Amino acid sequence: MKYSVIVPVYNRPDEVDELLESLTTQTFKDFEVVIVEDGSTLTCKDICKGYTGALDIHYFSKDNSGPGKSRNYGAERAKGEYLIILDSDVVLPPEYFNAVNRELENEDADAFGGSDSAHLSFTDTQKAISYSMTSFFTTGGIRGGKKKKLDKFYPRSFNMGIKRDVYKALNGFSEMRFGEDIDFSIRIFKAGYKCRLFPDAWVWHKRRTDFRKFFRQVYNSGIARINLYKKYPDSLKLVHLLPMVFTVGAIALILTSAVGRILMEYDDIDKWYWLCAAPWLPLIAYSLLIFIDSSRANKSMRIGIMSIGAAFVQLMGYGCGFISAWWKRCVLGQNEFHAFDKTFYK
Question: Within the chain, which residues score under 70 in pLDDT?
Answer without folding.
Answer: 141-152, 340-346
